[in-house]
Amino acid sequence: MERSRIKNEEQYEALRDKGYSKEKSARIANTPNAGKKGGEAKPYEDWTKDELYKQAKNVGIEGRSKMKKDELIQSLRTN
Length: 79
Hints:
Blueprint: H1 9-17, H2 22-29, H3 49-59, H4 69-78
Helix pairs in contact: 1-2, 3-4
């Protein structure tokens, strides 16, 4: 992935410094609202399965189409 395609360069660098791979750092830094703080997002348990699926797609979780809601939550938390 080209560095110019990183939406949140500061977050990308922080993740790389923590030891995350280039791919995972880029995936996280390119998600909507990347790097924003403030606890605005509701807990995953309050999301619909469709919302969880879309978020899983945004961060590149494989096998998401066959996952149940609780599996999507677990995958998002450990990705």
